[in-house]
Write a structure and sequence with these properties.
With about 400 residues, the protein is of the alpha/beta class. It contains eleven helices and 18 strands. The longest helix has 18 residues, at about 125-145. The protein binds thymidine-5'-diphosphate (TYD) and magnesium ion (MG).
């Protein structure tokens, strides 16, 4: 069946609906995975509240917290609790009995690692338990056509309860990501039998729970200062939509025999590649510099499309001069110093224009994709050296501050 032909339980959050492919599908199992403390329980309670009330009722199984803790959280989120039944239990048989009795419109299990099946010898949270409990929940959900949402902690190695046992069993897996010290949370579909994968929802953790971020690009750039040294705007694709982000770089003379390279929110290998190209193809002296790069707001970018922006941020820091005209940049950097095209350039550049940035460097080979963009001037570049000459010309180097 085509994904849009499936009936769905729509939720109040457009961002969550977007990641799910339109809403929760009856009888489906969705796993919300993430680090402890990232906001899974907050999200589950919001989903539960969405479905409770006039639409129906929800059974919220909590193995991790007491009913009074859930009540406190619900009060904080402004949830009334009509039609929301909280079941503090870790015994799977008991949970299934309660499901039979309540026949809810939605069942939530927080978390799957706390449930146990008495017939198995191993303890709760072991792979055997997690697999068996999930199997029995799936069987119940499919039989009764009730959607279920489970939460699962991710271990240090990035697995959910062992070697990705659960991912194969459930219909959809959404990862909740974000830097715990920042308030942005990304909900990323890594598997979805009823929608597109790699769709991303952007939420913000506030004092009153998770709220939708209506204009993520604007939010991610909100604290950027114009003319900041070492700062460049890049346009990445998150699923089907372009998102703008700010890359920051800082280079400082190192006192270490092997200078440090630290990347937060970017792949360290991409940083090393860009540094190597800057050194060999542009002649920039980086060997005696410690280098720190960061994506503002706790975002993570894994696309080579950010290479050009990263290189310009480094050049801006080394030359101690802001990028001229606060330009944005899109493009992959190749080992011979060429700037290569990346997918969806037109849409990325359009997003740059929408947010009022007037210039955007693009790979020369992709200029044909930029014909229809408004409010922004695409500047074609063939090589990294050329891009640096345009954005951070050598003569502009500011004097180092004297203290
Ligand atoms: P929680 O949903 O308990 O995370 P998880 O279930 O993934 O372990 O929430 C974690 C953090 O979110 C917690 O440190 C407190 C914070 N928080 C808010 O900032 N605002 C809120 O409204 C709520 C409920 C939690
Ligand atoms: Mg929790």
């Amino acid at each position: 069946m085509a994904p849009d032909a499936v009936p769905r339980l729509r939720l109040s959050s457009p961002e969550i609906n977007r990641v799910l492919g339109g809403g929760l599908v009856p009888g489906s199992l969705t796993l919300i995975a993430g680090d402890p403390g990232i906001g899974k329980s907050t999200l589950l309670l919001r989903l539960a509240a969405d479905v409770s009330g006039s639409d129906g009722n929800t059974l919220y199984v909590c193995g991790e917290e007491s009913a009074s803790q859930i009540k406190m959280r619900a009060d904080r989120l402004g949830i009334s609790g009509d039609g929301l039944y909280v079941l503090p239990s870790t015994d799977l048989d008991h949970v299934l009995r309660c499901l039979e009795e309540t026949k809810p419109s939605l069942a939530v299990v927080d978390s799957i690692q706390t449930l146990y099946d008495q017939t198995l010898a191993s303890g709760a949270g072991t792979i055997a338990q997690v697999r068996e409990c999930t199997r029995r929940l799936i069987a119940w959900a499919k039989e009764h056509g009730v959607p279920m949402v489970l939460s699962g902690h991710v271990t240090k190695g990035g697995d959910i309860a062992g070697p990705r046992v659960l991912e194969h069993m459930v219909d959809a897996v959404l990862y909740m990501e974000g830097d715990p010290i920042s308030s942005w949370r990304l909900l990323r579909a890594v598997k979805n039998r009823f929608g597109s994968t790699n769709e991303v929802g952007v939420l913000e953790m506030t004092g009153r729970g998770l709220i939708d971020v209506e204009d993520p690009s604007r939010a991610f750039l909100s604290e950027r200062r114009d003319n900041a040294i070492g700062s460049v705007i890049v346009a990445t694709m998150e699923g089907t939509r372009p998102l703008l982000a700010e890359i920051q770089a800082l280079t400082t003379p190192s006192s270490l025999p092997t200078p440090r390279r630290v990347a937060t929110g970017l792949d360290l290998n991409r940083l090393l590649l860009v540094c190597a190209v800057l050194t060999r193809r542009v002649g920039m002296r980086l060997a005696d510099q410690d280098i720190v790069v960061n994506v503002a707001g706790g975002l993570r970018i894994s696309e080579p499309a950010a290479d050009l922006g990263l290189a310009l941020a480094l050049a801006s820091s080394v030359r101690n001069a802001p990028v001229e005209g606060s330009a944005a940049a899109v493009g992959e950097v190749g080992l011979s110093g060429e700037v290569r095209r990346v997918p969806q350039i037109g849409r990325r550049v359009q997003e740059v224009g929408r947010l009022g940035v007037q210039r955007c460097l693009v790979p020369g080979s992709a200029m044909d994709e930029c014909r229809d963009v408004d409010d922004v001037q695409p500047i074609p570049v063939e090589t990294l050296a050329e891009a640096i000459q345009i954005c951070v010309p050598r003569g502009k180097r500011a004097q180092p501050a004297v203290f």
